[in-house]
Amino acid sequence: MTEPVRPREVAAIDIGSNSFHMVVARIVGQSLQIISRHKQRVHLASGLDKHHNLDQAAIKRGLECLAMFAERLQGFEPENVRIAATYTLRQANNAHIFLKRAESILPYSIEIIPGTEEARLIYLGVAHTQPDNGQKLIIDIGGGSTELVIGEDFTPQLAYSKNMGCVSYTERFFVKGKINGKNMAAAQLAAQQKLESIASKYIREGWQTAIGSSGTIKAIREVLIGQGHSDGVITAERLQQLCETILKAKHSEDLDFVGLNDDRKPVFAAGVAILSAVFKSLGINEMVFSDGALREGLLYEMEERFRHSDIRVRTATAMAKQYNVDIAQANRVKETAEQLYSQIEPQPGLTKTELATLLSWGALLHEVGLSISYPGFHRHSAYLLRHSTMPGFNLEQQTVLATLVRFQRKSLKLEEMPELSIYKRKHLYPLIRTLRLAVALNGQRSDDPLPAIAVDAEKEKWQLTLPEGWEESNRLLAADLRQEQAYWRKAGWELELTPDNG
What we know:
InterPro entries: ATPase_NBD, Exopolyphosphatase, GppA/Ppx_hydrolase, Ppx_GppA_C, Ppx_GppA_N, PyroPPase_GppA_Ppx. The chain has helices at 56-72, 87-91, 95-103, 115-129, 166-173, 181-195, 199-205, 214-226, 236-247, 265-282, 294-302, 311-322, 327-344, 350-364, 377-387, 395-406, 425-441, 470-473, 475-490; strands spanning 8-15, 19-28, 31-41, 81-85, 110-112, 136-141, 146-152, 155-162, 209-213, 234-235, 286-290, 454-458, 461-467, 494-500.
């Protein structure tokens, strides 16, 4: 009996100015599954002297980290490993010494990539882990440089890298951890000056969504969540308030924020100063965070088949196939749900746009539980979506998907809804109502298109306007809708069915 072929594993290492990152993934069918992540704070940029030479202490820290990473990569073929070094090794005159010594530790080549290439790979990493919602502006503040990219789908259209980062700006403006208004203003002004030559190009190009990636913006997001902003969205107002709170601390060691770890404290003020300058220079109102970054871009670059689609498309498609989902029916429900929800939220903000995307995935996968059994299949679907490995979806997103499909039919036992950290329960109620209506309206599993159906929502009271005479000629569907009304009433909701009298 022949042994099954082991899935190919690939790894990417990002030698950053503040931290080194390694990601290992397994290629399974059309999916790329992250199986391990490793991060070490190295502070490489702090070892650059005024002559742009790396000191021996920084080199030693970097090599020790690579030695740890090498233990995980034993047995990996060179074509399955890609290592990219960024700002600090771009700047270091003695980078060759670091690379030569690294050769004896890691038997893989290290690429020192230019800033625009770093920006392109960051864009690729974010594009593969973020749903496509039109033109995207992606900002990545590293230890030594900041990348700014605008693009659509998987194609960056405008990409720059600027020499300003949380480590380099800490050493320049917040010497020995000292924080005051003068230092903060100087750092912000310097960052704005760096952006002056490109700001008008970015504003002219435009974007629908601003997305932040990597450690600095992640740390800011976590601090905002710790302050009670559970949606994790970074807004201009919240950023300004954060700047004012930081100034009360006087010293980096005194920064006492929920969600801010001790390693990040020394460079936090500089990171906030840079991001606030980016917001001001480009006129950004709000920004969301993406887990995708340079290392994910390196992974996807290695395997060409992954270059042209959102990772969540592949995840959902693979899952639908695995559980023998009736794709025609799933698409009918998905299209109806999208059409109804677009009437309820004609101009959704960032949070609701993301939830609308999750509604679409939930509709596509609402019947995965049928593979277990028909009775209670909505519960089976919820279990599979909550506990399966779903690349591209975080735990909160999987919880939302599971909740939507759990409440797609039968009684609305809303007390069974799980706790959420990013979203609120009230955010999910309109999605649950929408999916229930889409499922009910397509209950006959017919290829005949549905007529135009209008929905008007006023909090818990929804009105569905159906073509005149349609209920009489679709009596089974009408009965299902009457049952749906009863379910809504028990939950304290109201569903009104009215004929369209022209």
